[in-house]
Amino acid sequence: MILIQDPKNAPTGPKVIAVGSFDGVHRGHQALLARARRHAQEAGLPLLVYTFDPPTKALTKGVPILSTLSEKARLLEVAGADVVLAVPFDEAFARRTKEAFLEELRELEPRLLVVGEDFRFGRGRSGGLEDLARVAPVVAVPLVCHQGAPVKSTRIRDALLVGDVELARALLGRPYAVEGVVVRGEGLGRQLGFPTANLALPAMKALPQGVFAVEVEHKGRLHPGVAHAGPRPTLKDVRPRLEVHLFEGEGELYGETLQVRFLKRLRAPRRFPDLAALKAQIARDVEAARAFFSQQGA
Predict the structure, then answer these.
(1) Is the pLDDT of residue 192 over 80?
(2) How high is the mean pLDDT of the chain?
(3) Least-confidence region, from 97-111, 228-242, 244-258, 274-288
(4) Bond before 54 cis per omega within 30 degrees
(5) 32 phi and psi, to 5 degrees?
(6) Is the pLDDT of residue 238 over 70?
(7) Has residue 262 got a pLDDT over 80?
(8) Domains plus CATH for the chain?
(9) What is the Cα–Cα distance from 277 to 176, expressed in whole angstroms?
(10) Residues 89-143: tens digit of each pLDDT
C-alpha cells in the first residue's frame, strides 16, 4: 500500500475512490470499503482512499481522534486500499469551496466514487451526492446500524467517554486500542508491588477513563494485564495517563512500542485516602482482571 499526503503524488490513471474521514475505521467504514474494494476488483482498477488528517471534526469541533494517521493507514490497508491519500486538514482546507474539492477529485481520475449516504463536503458542508455525480458515478453506501442506531465515530467517542469499551468494541468490530512508546514514570507502581509500563500518549487520541482488563501487543505477542487510564485523583494528577501492569513480566520495556487493547472496564476512577488504600485496590483490580481472563478461557 502507498501512503501519500499530496494529491499531485497520486498514481495516474483511472481508479475507484472511496472518500471520508474514516476515523477509527469502524464497522460502517468497513462496509463502505468492502463495497469499494469489490467495485475496484470487478473493474480491475486500484482502490484509492481519500481521507483527512486529522479527521475533520478534530479541527472544527476539537474532538479527540480514534485513530492516528499510522493506525488509520494500517486499518485501511487491511480493508484493501491500494493507495491512501491522507490530505492535511487545516483551516485553509476547511474554507475550500465545494467546487475546489470537486476539481481535485477530477484530477485524481475516478472511474467511480464510493461514499457514505450522509457524506457532505466543502465550506459549510455545502456539497452533497448530487455534486459528486458531476465528477463520476457515485455509489452511496447505507449506514450500518447497531442496536437501532447508526455506527458512527461520534457514538464510539461517546462510549469511550463513559468507559463503555464493550460498546466501542461492538461498533468498531475490534477492541479499541491505544498505541504508544513506554517512557519512564515515577516508579510508584513498582513501589506498590505492581510495576507498570507508562505510555506516551499520541496527541488528540481518545482515552477511556477508569481501570480496565486489557491485552497488550508487544513485538507480535499478546499479554494479559490491567490498565489505569486517565487522571490519577489519589495523586492529584489531572494529566491523562495510561499505565499498564502486565501479568507476565516482559523485562525492560523503556523505548518499546506497546498497543493496549481495552477489553472490559473494571471500575471508574476513584480517589483513595492514602497509598495503602490504593495498593489494596490495585490488588483487587488485578484479581478482577485475572478473573475476567479466566472466564474468557485465556
Answers:
(1) no
(2) 92
(3) 228-242
(4) yes
(5) -65, -45
(6) no
(7) yes
(8) 2-150 (3.40.50.620), 175-295 (2.40.30.30)
(9) 30
(10) 999 888 999 999 999 999 999 999 999 999 999 888 999 999 999 999 999 999 9
User: How far is the C-alpha of 124 from the C-alpha of 185, rounded, in Å?
Assistant: 44
Q: Is the dihedral of CA 76, 77, 78, 82 positive or negative?
A: positive
pLDDT at 248: 83
Alpha carbon distance 85, 17 (integer Å): 10
C-alpha cell at 81: 486500499
| Total count of residues recorded for the chain | 298
Tell me the CB-side half-sphere exposure of residue 271, using CA atoms within 13 A: 8
